[in-house]
Amino acid sequence: MILYLSTIILLIVISPLLLSFITQIKMFITFKKPISIFQGYRNFSKLMSKETIISEETSAVTRVAPFLILSPLLIVLFLLPPIVKGAYYVSFVDAFTITGLISLSTFFLMLLGLDSASSFGGMGSSREAFISALVEPAMILTVFSVSMMAGNLGIGQAGVNLASSFPQKHMASFLFSAISFFILLIAENGRIPVDNPQTHLEVTMIHEAMILDITGVYLAIVEMASSIKFIIFASLFASLFMPFGLQFSIPVALVIFIAKLLIICIAIALLEIGTAKLRLFKVPNLLGISIVFAFLSLITFYVLGA
User: CB count, 10 Å around CB of 276?
Assistant: First the structure.
């Protein structure tokens, strides 16, 4: 149990570091002076020390929504597959539970944007609802597909099964699921080409539009939730679609797991450098590709057995 809690604390601690690492890689490749890899911690510390100002137009929702955004994501951290051998894990939680908790966090984020009574907040919330409605079915299909290949619907047990016995005969289905889930990782975390987390341009922003009217501790909590959400998706991708390293000793397994997270961050950074942000009404085309690959994975698995 101590090892189980230690790995969860580790994920929380390194979550801001991964987002800073992505920015650092992008700045390095584009010949800019890279930010410090600890910039995420500095931003959090700065926000915690700032005064919290709340608009008179808001209700009690704004005061409780940041905590309700963070809480479901913290619960999801306890339901992820183990990252080291011998750690406790919850074996019976399926794709519906994980997706439901993440969607609950998104719901409270949309409420926060609507409660500010600003045009930007409402615009961001409507766009977030538009994207989430396409992401959720694709995520359920994708995780369900890879769970079937692992021989267990529980995500934790599926991660352990994949690490101990990789389904080589289902490689085609496995690759289709991996492509689908990577697209979802990009979309759910507001990365390019779906959203640009580093812009405040009113015409294009989605996530930033919902948090324009909060500051101080509330903004720090929302930003922490955003980084935790990223590491949840990155950890799921690393455990389910890069299932190796669990059989080694604890120090080696931790190093391998962190290396997998860094590889995912590098892939995202390279993708963001090489692509431009899509127009909002072209985003369904990208998410449609994710749904198609998820269906292809299931069909290939059940019909062709490949």
Answer: 9
pTM: 0.94
- The token duo for 90 is 């919850």
Q: Are 277 and 192 in contact (CB under 8 A)?
A: yes
Q: What is the dihedral of CA 163, 164, 169, 174, to 10 degrees?
A: -20
> Which two three-digit tokens encode residue 139?
């995520």
Q: Residue 65 is which amino acid?
A: A
Chain centroid to Cα 290, Å, comes to 15
Helix (H) / strand (E) containing 197: none
Burial, 281: exposed, middle or buried (Cβ in 10 Å; 0-12, 13-18, 19+)?
exposed
Q: In whole angstroms, give the CA distance from residue 104 to residue 9.
A: 22
pLDDT in tens, 94-116: 888 999 999 999 999 999 988 87
In this structure, what DSSP letter does residue 33 have? P
